[in-house]
Amino acid sequence: MSDLITIPARRGKAYRVAKGETIKVINTHGDQVIDTWAFNADDLHEFMSMEHSRAHILKIVPAVGDTMRTNKRRPILTFVEDTSGGVHDTIIAACDKHRYSFLGHEGYHDNCEDNLHAAMHDIGLEAPETPSPLNLFMNIPVQPDRSLSFEAPVSTPGCYVRLKAEMDLIIAFSACPQDILPINGVGHMPTEAHFTIES
Amino acid sequence: MSDLITIPARRGKAYRVAKGETIKVINTHGDQVIDTWAFNADDLHEFMSMEHSRAHILKIVPAVGDTMRTNKRRPILTFVEDTSGGVHDTIIAACDKHRYSFLGHEGYHDNCEDNLHAAMHDIGLEAPETPSPLNLFMNIPVQPDRSLSFEAPVSTPGCYVRLKAEMDLIIAFSACPQDILPINGVGHMPTEAHFTIES
Description:
Two copies of one chain form a homodimer. Chain A is α+β, with helices and mostly antiparallel strands. Chain A has helices at 50-57, 97-102, 112-122, and strands at 5-7, 12-17, 22-27, 34-40, 43-47, 67-69, 75-82, 134-136, 159-165, 169-175, 193-198. Chain A contains three helices and eleven strands. Chains A, B: InterPro entries: DUF1989 (IPR018959).
């Protein structure tokens, strides 16, 4: 098992993972949303796709046993354990500079889109686009009338998700810097989180 | 109003639309799913995004009065009328060659992804990627347990959706060639559909 790797508060982190290894994503302080991407290590234009995964798992939120797929419909990550309560999101875009302008913020605001690209750059890579992310621990309930809302996480300190790599891949995380909506907990500021790689 | 323009069965069609014009998409035979994309005419890298739109309309299915947004969160298409029953989909990827292999089809099968790119090519353009489509008339119910299924449309012959262009854009349609799952009606084969442009 690797050392504990930090996803700094409001920042991103990318890491190379070999096929068969498992990534344990820890919600250290309990109510931090972690935007998550995975790219084929041999072809960054192939990446985990929410819209393709949903067509195969036949759910809008993956659970233990479900395998996420790429935009070429190949398996890329499998949920093997989840102690968080199972509330995650696949339907909302990564926050970006436009999002914070729309919410009334003036000037630059940290955001998950820029965090993804900075994290990839930090390991010498360039993400070809910003795929729709797997938003771990993010609570977007969908009502029977098909409306949705942004709610605080149900996850608790130290809870985690374990994801098995189904191919050699680059995993990228962003500790979501959203501090206007209560998506990282009511009254809570964005915090750091951690992950380990288990072989 | 333009003449009636055909989206041939199992094929795509792209068309230039000016800001302020309205696109009337007609489900001529009643149960044909129409995958729909919209690209900023001045920058094809900006396009209608399901994951960004959902964050703003706060629904998984848009209704009359809702405005779809681009991956830069700018308004691009507004639903101004809908006589179809209001059942559409924003959460499932366009079908592609991989989808039909997965479903057991041998050899080439027409698919919405290739139809998008062929339709853009026909008007001298190249789509930079395959965005997650707005699947008009597609019936993907989401249950309270967050599961989903592929069902036949509820739309009827001649029903239509009217979409107002909020910028100069390229609209692209694919008359979905899915003939393995009942997404285009139980026992029904893919059919043509039509659209008009109203100034």
